[in-house]
Amino acid sequence: MHPRDVLLGAQAGSEQLPVCDHYSGVEARMRKSLQLQAEMTQEYGTCVFDVTLDCEDGAPVGGEAEHAALVTELALAAAPDARVAVRVHPVDHPSFDADVAQIAGRAGHRLVHIMVPKVESVRDVERAAAALDAAGATALPLQVLIESPAAVHRTFDIAAHPRVQSLSFGLMDFVSAHGGAIPSDGMAAQGQFTHPLVVRAKLDIASACHAHGKVPSHCVVTEFNNTDAMREAARKAAREFGYTRMWSIHPAQIRPILEAMAPTEAEIERASDIIAAAHAAQWAPISHAGQLHDRASYRFFWQVLERAHQTGRSLPSATQTFF
């Protein structure tokens, strides 16, 4: 049997998302993002990032309907294997219903998810799900943005909703919601990993996602010209905060995210050796390099290999056949 079926149980049916979610809202940048996705898919042999077309920050005030029509046409015109999503306006925005009716109604079959910002409660999720259903996009997953202290408080309930696929952390709105109680450094590449209130929010969101089998997606780094800061933030998000996906807001951020979120060559080699030996033993316990391994550790090492595949890393021949 395939390792996913043997080791992950009910989780085997969950979708494996690319580790990077790239946002753009200006027409020229949206088109370039889709082109870059196609080029990097060919380079890596798998789609390594989603492209999310942005209505919330991309649409000019008064031009929401025209912008929704634009992203719909871009989604419909994307390559058949493209992974395209759309961020609509919040559920309490006057354009929300029109966004969903236009975008999900016409292009829902081409989208991988709809992102809903400023979700405050399960009621907001239900409102968004009902709008998608009314538009005929009954199978389209929801991803949601957690952007306030009250929303953080409700993350476990929000993550438990069956329509929710992933929770993202909205750093800048979260900091602003504190009325100056968190200094501006709390929005910076380094400060966001040290201020206790921001750290607590990130850990709550990651914990809620992992408790319910959902994907925690880390917030943006606004210093997009600082590659080292981007790489270190992505490394911290993955290695210390439990995030398995991260936002990009500039093409230069995509490769550092992939690099930081990917397992090392040594980790891939060890995981491959253990999974290959476990498969040969029909998943019975084995001894490897003086350590006992069974299905509990097999599950971990299989997930290392899945992450390597998601980030376009080369896999040893012994386990390449599983992908």
Structure description:
The strands form two sheets. An eight-stranded parallel beta barrel has the order 1-2-3-4-5-6-7-8, surrounded by six helices. Helix 12 crosses helix 13. The protein is 47% helix and 14% strand. The chain folds into two domains: 245 residues, Phosphoenolpyruvate-binding domains (TIM Barrel, Alpha-Beta Barrel); 56 residues, no CATH class. The protein is an alpha/beta fold and 323 residues long.
What's a quick, concise take on this entry?
With 323 residues, the protein is an alpha/beta fold.
Spell out the key features of this protein.
10 strands; single chain; 8-stranded parallel barrel; TIM Barrel; 2 domains; 323 residues; globular; two-stranded antiparallel ribbon; alpha/beta
